[in-house]
Amino acid sequence: MTIAITGATGQLGRHVVAQLAAKIPSDEIVALVRSPDKAIDLCVSARAFDYSRPDLLASALEGIDTLLLISSSEVGKRITQHGNVIAAAKTAGVGRIVYTSLLHADTSALDLAEEHLETEAALKASGVPFTILRNGWYTENYLGSLSSALEHNAVIGSAGDGRISSAARGDYAAAAVIALTRDDLAGRTIELAGDDSYTLTDLAAEISRQSGSDVRYVDMPETAYAQALVDIGLPSPLAHAIAGWDAAAAKGALFDDGRQLSALIGRPTTPLSDVVAAALR
Q: Where would I find the NAD(P)-binding domain in this sequence (predicted)?
């Protein structure tokens, strides 16, 4: 059986390839990437793959039994890009597609949900067997600005007291590996999130505890938070998107207590404290 991973050089994709290579022979893994030269360190076969080049996708998928379709990073273009991949997979005779969707995509207040729902619908209409992994937030999303939080003694956001059931990328990768290697998950849609939820106040407290700095959470109105992100150099559309996601989190968009992720991977999800510790190293 040959398993292919799209976006294999991305932050999630690299985790998936590494964990999959520990479970099956590396010659049964194919990395699908825009630039195969950048995938040499993955130590698996790599093929050129660009979601926006439908004319080249089917040939790149020849001989693939199971495909992990990691959602595109190009928000606003996902419906077309994912549709290209699904159509190519059908043409190439791929046996099953595992797709990384969004937690509670059918009810989520996040503006990201629409493209994921459209992709889920395209999968179901394609006739290709599928497994949908509705991934929650990555804990690492909140640690990318750790140096700034330590410099200013503040974590800023608009999430209020909203509880966030995030998990580490490695946890979601473990779920993907299981979905790729188990046939009994075909046709399933699985809601994936961390075992334990936290607020951004809790996050700031954990950073303080481990760093020795007095880091507090500063909650801001959505528009003010967006402007603060623009002021530190983020493009305005991205800044407003991030602020909007935080505002949705304040209303529970990132919360889930079903513990389906830990049930699937057979272990507890990575604690917040461990991800903070790794980021502080």
A: 7-145
The tokens describing 186, both together, are 């075909």
Q: What letter would DSSP give residue 143?
A: T
Claim to verify: residue 115 and residue 247 sit in the same structural domain: no
DSSP designation for 72? P
Amino acid code (one letter) for 182: R
Q: Is residue 27 part of a domain?
A: yes
Contact (CB, 8 A) for 6 and 32: yes
Residue 117 contacts residue 71 (beta carbons within 8 Å): no
Query: Are 149 and 79 in the same domain?
Result: no
Per residue in 122-136, is it b (16+ CB within 10 Å) or e — as a string?
bbeebebbbbbbbbb
What is the pTM for the complete model shown? 0.96
Distance CA 260, CA 263 (A): 5
Q: Which two tokens stand for residue 31?
A: 């990395």
113-126 helix and 78-92 helix, angle to the nearest 10 degrees: 20
